[in-house]
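User: For my dataset I need records formatted as: sequence, then structure tokens, nothing else. Please produce one.
Assistant:
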Amino acid sequence: MWRVISLIVALTFVPLAASAQQPCTTDARRVVDELYRHMFERGADAASAGHVRDLESGRVTVRNLVRDIAKSSEHNQRFIRQESGEETPYIRSIETLYRHVLGRQPDRNGARSYAEMAARNGGNVNSVVDALLASPEYNNAFGDWGVPGSGGLVYCGNNSNNQTSNTSTTDAGRFRGMDRNHDGRITRDEWQGSDRAFRANDWNNDGVLSGDELAGSPGTAATTGTVTVVSATQRWTDTGIDVTAGDMVTFDSEGSVRLSEGGDDTATASGSRTGRRAQDAPVPQAPAGGLIARIGDSAPVYVGDRRVLRAPVSGRLYLGVNDDHLPDNSGEFRVTVSVRNR
């Protein structure tokens, strides 16, 4: 069984660095389509036209749209429920909210705290949504105009006052805010996040974080828009892409897979729709069925719906599905991979 701790050696997550990788867009339809794909896990329908008009007119921010979608009746009916076998009631629903709102996997303590909040409110997660959207993490990562789950897209329409990516400077500000003694580095005591997040950002494993580790600098595009079809029945799919240590790799995934012959046992790239795990999967602590990656013979890392990774090693990039038994699977993911050199 693969050990999760080895992921630190393989690939490290750098979600905030994505903001420097894409220019802002004035296309409100593109923004709404991204939000529907990421948060509803489906394509936009005719009703989404109202969101487009609101965004174009400047009546709402992207953050407002994220709030509306996360609190909508459809989102609640599809993703918010108490499930049998949960250690904490509503914990799987909260994990989904972390992915949809913050664009990342949840930290254990934070998810449990929010699940308890939801349980106290009888399963109503509106307070959780408000807390996530008001959090320093959301402000730093997305602000009012960043689009969660999009790999760094920022809206700069008519009234956004955001003609350049307002998140392109947030990493630097975030670094300065945590560097309390102003020595140019962040220790674990200064870090305002989980141990796992600290280790993930400490890609050179020296026990401290530098500005470069918190904010990847943009480079030149090496590979843009290469589509790889990832079969659910194949352990690893060769993307045909060779990456170099330090490259920023962006994954944009669509499609769904079936993980067994059971009719409801399906997954998107962000993982099983029921939130279940597979004990003998390559990344057993992550949701079953989600998209995973590895470079060369290094240990696998969970990618999920859309993720930006920094490669500390050079080699061929492979993609797969996070499941323990593949022969009874069906379906595929279509993954667009972009690589930016540092």
